[in-house]
User: Which sequence fits this backbone?
């Protein structure tokens, strides 16, 4: 899933394998070995898996940013 930083979403499911919970966080990351600085990927996470997914990426020395996932119609 790739989202613009201000792009609202109607709903999203956590990116953790096997999890079907609603996502409330966005995790933007990049593999610097294969992606240029202007290209990022986005995973989404539920509260339970936010730290797990962030740590998984950080352990690989990938640049990572975590922000709340904006719901459709939410104030900006």
Assistant:
């Amino acid at each position: 899933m790739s989202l613009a930083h201000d792009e609202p979403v109607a709903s999203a499911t956590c990116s953790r394998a096997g999890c079907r919970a609603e996502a409330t966080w966005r995790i933007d990351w990049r593999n610097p070995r294969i992606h240029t600085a202007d290209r990022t990927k986005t995973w989404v996470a539920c509260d339970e898996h936010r730290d797990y997914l962030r740590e998984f990426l950080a352990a690989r020395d990938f640049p990572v940013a975590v922000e709340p996932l904006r719901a459709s119609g939410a104030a900006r």
Notes: DSSP finds one helix and three strands in the chain. The two ends are 21 Å apart (CA to CA). Residues 1-76 form one domain.
